[in-house]
């Protein structure tokens, strides 16, 4: 996976996970499909997922900066 694609995927994942964490989007959706009993477990899944996507975004930014600095030294 190239740097640009990794950054896009991790950024989109972080934004979607943050929206689901800090708004009631999933609570409403789970209520609509009659799975509201799972609402209590959302934090157990969403917070680690958010941490993963933020770490992945940081890694993608570091990798992009590292590759750019290597390109500058080799040119």
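^ Assign residues to that structure.
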């Amino acid at each position: 996976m190239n740097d640009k694609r990794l950054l896009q995927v991790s950024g989109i994942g972080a934004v979607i996970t943050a929206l689901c964490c800090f708004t009631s989007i999933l609570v409403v959706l789970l209520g609509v499909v009659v799975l509201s009993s799972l609402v209590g477990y959302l934090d157990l899944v969403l917070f680690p997922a958010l941490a993963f996507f933020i770490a992945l975004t940081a890694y993608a930014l570091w990798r992009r900066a590292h590759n750019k600095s290597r390109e500058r030294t080799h040119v």
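DSSP finds three helices and no strands in the chain.
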